[in-house]
């Protein structure tokens, strides 16, 4: 990755994290909520999440992978809200399954098994998340890899 790309990503991350967002009272994590944002890690790029109901969501991301490839992945995620109580917002853990495609010099296809945690704000339409996702490579021989990222999403259906 070149320095210009890294600097651009860090600036985008800072802008997304520092912009105040006006919202109606939100209950992020409800059916039909759509969040769009950015993530840093492997991959580094844009991300989206769509909630199917209060515990089930589909997410996806695309961006730069550390091995120089373009990364696209999507997962179905099951959330558990019973682990921790927080005074302002919710903190669900999640696990899921999905697929990853890498395009470039080292093209690959694999099965992702993400595990993560999200902070869902109660007064802003924001989600902050961290995840790690073991990957089982299924093309060019069986192998293993690990994706991991931290990120932020803004839920657009709550914006004024």
Summarize the helices and strands and which ones pair or pack.
Layout: H1 3-18, E1 34-42, E2 44-51, E3 56-64, E4 70-80, E5 93-103, E6 108-112, E7 115-120, E8 126-137, E9 143-155
Antiparallel strand pairs: 1-2, 1-9, 2-3, 3-4, 4-5, 5-6, 5-7, 6-8, 7-8, 8-9
Radius of gyration: 16 Å
Average predicted confidence as pLDDT? 85
Estimate percent helicity. Answer: 10-25%
H/E element order: HEEEEEEEEE
Number of DSSP strands? 9
Principal-axes shape call? elongated
By CATH, the topology is Porin
Structural class: mainly beta
Task: Identify low-pLDDT runs.
Answer: 14-26
* DSSP summary: helix tally: 1
| Biggest β-sheet strands, sense, barrel | 9 strands, antiparallel
CATH architecture descriptor name: Beta Barrel
Give the total of domains.
Answer: 1
Percent range for β-strand residues? over 45%
At the first level of CATH, the class is: Mainly Beta
Q: Please give the alpha-carbon distance between the first and last residues.
A: 37 Å
């Amino acid at each position: 990755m070149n320095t210009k790309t890294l600097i651009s990503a860090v600036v985008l991350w800072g802008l997304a994290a520092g912009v105040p967002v006006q919202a109606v009272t939100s209950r992020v994590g409800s059916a039909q909520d759509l969040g769009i944002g950015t993530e840093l890690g492997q991959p580094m790029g844009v991300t989206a999440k769509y909630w199917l109901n209060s515990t089930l969501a589909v997410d996806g991301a695309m961006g730069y992978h550390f091995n120089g490839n373009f990364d696209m992945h999507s997962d179905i995620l099951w959330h558990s809200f019973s682990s921790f109580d927080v005074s302002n917002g919710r903190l669900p853990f999640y696990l899921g399954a999905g697929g990853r495609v890498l395009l470039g010099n080292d093209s690959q296809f694999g099965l992702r098994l993400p595990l993560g945690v999200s902070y869902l704000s109660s007064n802003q339409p924001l989600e902050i998340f961290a995840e790690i996702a073991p990957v089982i490579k299924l093309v060019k021989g069986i192998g293993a890899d690990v994706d991991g990222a931290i990120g932020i999403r803004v839920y657009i259906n709550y914006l004024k």
